[in-house]
């Protein structure tokens, strides 16, 4: 047991905290080492919290143009017997190894113009593995939506390498969703080409991964997340359009690759898991979403909880963060909504559940794909952790000044949120029934951890 030695957050200017989260590289790489625990960890809490995000925002004197281009890094915090150990490591992907050998940036929008042309002709993309990290059949994979999974060694977070799991095409989104009743995880990848298509996959608890089918799209969108019920996979394809020639040649900056075209509307696509060719699809008024909380089937309806934005401005505000801007305004415009889709009438009705801005919604284990009563979220642009029930009742814990939280991850009856300070981080362990009381324990990481987007808990 490591002696509890709490740290007090220094009164950090929030702007500089924000800048450090989105621009300052991971403070230190290391394998599992003892971590300081403040408070008392629940005796029955056992397992590993994995978090993933950009760990390096540039190299060899070149800054990447958008945080989404950062080289991925994982944080793992392993809890057992009331103690905790932690590891942190940048993923040494094939592209990063190549750049380290060359001593310069070779990929993405920061590479030299001749190199970008050469990358296009040779179909070379850097798999940054920087968005999520999951465990499947005892193996651990870091994910980014533009590429295949990158397998990580859970013993020390070292990088094993890219894998297609025997079934995956060119890409695998960073948002797999479990459906408890089907004992499987579902995911998709968008493949851009003459015809852009969504490819759908099933990763069962036992047995091999398989491709379920594919759906052609009318244009090349940015599609970040989807959701699954026990009968359907549901996609809200917002009218973001990727400029494919720009993407191929990597002209300009990352953010300039996307155009918001509200006149096209948002396409709702519902795919029956057992009959994936019998797709129901229709278009509604334009909106955008990054993330879904959960969904379930109810007769001939699908009920979908998600964080809705009026437009795509939040994407540009994230880019502004890397350039010294606050980027707060549009990030605070997302609200939890409940959409009801009528599969026969091909209609969607969406109602706001709560007015307070939130992001990174999750539900308790066991409720994925079936009716839930509570979503867990980060409120107020990562300034508070809490819950929203389906009646709109909010329970929250405001984080101290100088601290920003992240997606609350369900862990054996508790909620874990990696909270970032300017020069260190902690995992807040919350009792879901007593969130406003604050965390029952904090597990401290003694170095800077840049923003982490997503993660998961594994036994
Ligand atoms: Fe995401």
Average the pLDDT over all residues and give the rounded result.
91
Percent range for β-strand residues: 35-45%
Gap between N and C termini, in Å? 20 Å
Please, how many helices? 5
Quaternary form: single chain
Any descriptors?
single chain, 5-stranded antiparallel β-sheet, 34 strands, binds fe (ii) ion, 459 residues, mainly beta
Write a brief structural summary.
The chain is mainly β. Helices cover 10% and strands 42% of the residues.
Q: Explain this structure to me?
A:
By secondary structure, the chain is mainly β. Helices cover 10% and strands 42% of the residues. The chain has five helices and 34 strands. Strands 1-7-6-3-34 form a five-stranded antiparallel β-sheet, with no helix packed on it. The chain has a five-stranded antiparallel β-sheet with strand order 2-33-32-31-30, with no helix packed on it. It has a four-stranded antiparallel β-sheet with strand order 8-9-10-11, with no helix packed on it. It is globular. The two termini are 20 Å apart. Residues 1-12 have low confidence and may be disordered. It binds fe (ii) ion (FE2).
């Amino acid at each position: 047991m490591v002696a509890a030695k709490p740290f007090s957050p220094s009164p950090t200017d929030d702007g500089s905290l924000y800048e450090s989260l989105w621009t300052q590289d991971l403070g230190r790489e290391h394998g599992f080492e003892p971590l300081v625990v403040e408070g008392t960890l629940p005796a029955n809490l056992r397992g590993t919290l994995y978090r993933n995000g950009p760990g390096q925002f540039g190299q060899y004197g070149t800054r990447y143009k958008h945080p989404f281009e950062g080289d991925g890094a994982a944080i793992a915090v392993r809890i057992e017997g009331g103690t905790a150990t932690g590891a942190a490591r940048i993923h040494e992907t094939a592209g990063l190894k190549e750049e380290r050998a060359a001593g310069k940036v070779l990929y993405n929008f920061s590479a030299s113009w001749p190199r970008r042309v050469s990358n296009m002709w040779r179909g070379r993309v850097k798999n940054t593995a920087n968005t999520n990290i999951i465990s499947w059949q005892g193996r651990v994979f870091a994910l980014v939506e533009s590429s295949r999974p990158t397998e990580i060694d859970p013993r020390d977070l070292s990088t094993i390498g890219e894998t297609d799991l025997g079934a995956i095409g060119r890409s695998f989104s960073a948002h797999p969703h479990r459906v408890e009743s089907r004992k499987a995880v579902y995911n998709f990848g968008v493949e851009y080409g003459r015809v852009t298509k969504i490819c759908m996959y099933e990763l069962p608890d036992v047995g091999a991964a398989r491709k379920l089918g594919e759906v052609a799209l009318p244009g090349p969108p940015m599609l970040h997340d989807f959701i699954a019920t026990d009968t359907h996979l549901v996609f809200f394809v917002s009218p973001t359009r990727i400029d494919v020639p720009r993407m191929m040649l990597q002209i300009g900056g990352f953010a300039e690759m996307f155009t918001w075209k509200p006149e096209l509307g948002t396409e709702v696509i519902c795919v029956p898991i057992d009959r994936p060719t019998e797709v129901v699809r229709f278009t509604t008024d334009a909106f955008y979403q990054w993330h879904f909380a959960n969904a379930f089937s109810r007769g001939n309806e699908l009920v979908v909880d998600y964080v809705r934005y009026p437009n795509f401005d939040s994407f540009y505000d994230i880019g502004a963060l890397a350039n010294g801007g606050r980027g707060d305004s549009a990030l605070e415009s997302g609200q939890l909504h409940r959409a009801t889709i009528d599969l026969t009438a091909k209609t969607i009705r969406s109602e706001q559940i709560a007015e307070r801005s939130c992001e990174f919604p999750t539900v308790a284990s066991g409720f994925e794909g079936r009716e839930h009563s509570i979503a867990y979220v980060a409120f107020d642009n990562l300034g508070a952790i809490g819950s929203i029930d389906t009646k709109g009742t909010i329970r929250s814990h405001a984080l101290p000044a100088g601290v920003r939280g992240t997606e609350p991850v369900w862990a054996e009856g508790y909620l874990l949120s990696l909270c970032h300070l300017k020069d260190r981080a902690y995992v807040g362990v919350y009792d879901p029934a007593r969130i406003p009381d604050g965390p029952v324990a904090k597990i401290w990481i003694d170095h800077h951890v840049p923003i982490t987007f997503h993660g998961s808990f594994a036994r």
